[in-house]
Amino acid sequence: MHELSILENIVDIAAFELKRSGGLRIETIELEIGTLSGVEPDALEFAWPEATQHTVLEKTRKIIRYIPGQARCQSCGETFDLPYIYHVCPKCGSYYKDIIQGKELNVKSMEILKE
Ligand SMILES: [Zn+2]
Fold first, then answer.
1. 48-101 pLDDT, tens digit each
2. Which member of 10, 62, 80, 109 has the lowest number of beta carbons within 10 Å of its beta carbon?
3. Are 87 and 56 in contact, with CB atoms under 8 Å apart?
């Protein structure tokens, strides 16, 4: 499953950061996920317990921020919400656009317990 490998990657990042900080455990992790990143929220929730079992994130509270897709039309300059990647400009109908946000897939922050 796609989401499982993404979470394995996040676990690796978290383990690295925990080791680097010299902390004991990770209290919370905050993820930023764009609605155009291809990650299914339900699948991510479903995969979370399995992916984090016996890892540094096993007891960590997760906060997920979903970032809505937004684009700027290359033809007319209009900025608009982009629920799907193939959505056309609502003003002029152009397919050509620059994606401003919505492709994020980041670990935004972590709260690490030091003692
Ligand atoms: Zn346009």
1. 999 999 999 999 999 999 999 999 999 999 999 999 889 999 999 999 999 999
2. 109
3. no
Q: How far, in Å, from the CA of 99 to the mean position of ligand 1?
A: 13
Beta bridge partners of 109: 30
Residue 36 alpha carbon to ligand 1 centre in Å:
19
Burial (CB < 10 A; 0-12, 13-18, 19+), residue 90, is exposed
Indicate the angle between helix axes 41-52 and 2-21, nearest 10 degrees: 50
What are the tens digits of pLDDT across the range 34-50? 999 989 889 999 999 99
- Residue closest to 33 by CA, chosen among 1, 59, 53, 62: 62
Predicted model pTM: 0.84
- What domains are there in the chain, each with its CATH number? 2-68+102-113 (3.30.2320.50)
83 Cα: distance to centroid of ligand 1 (angstroms): 16
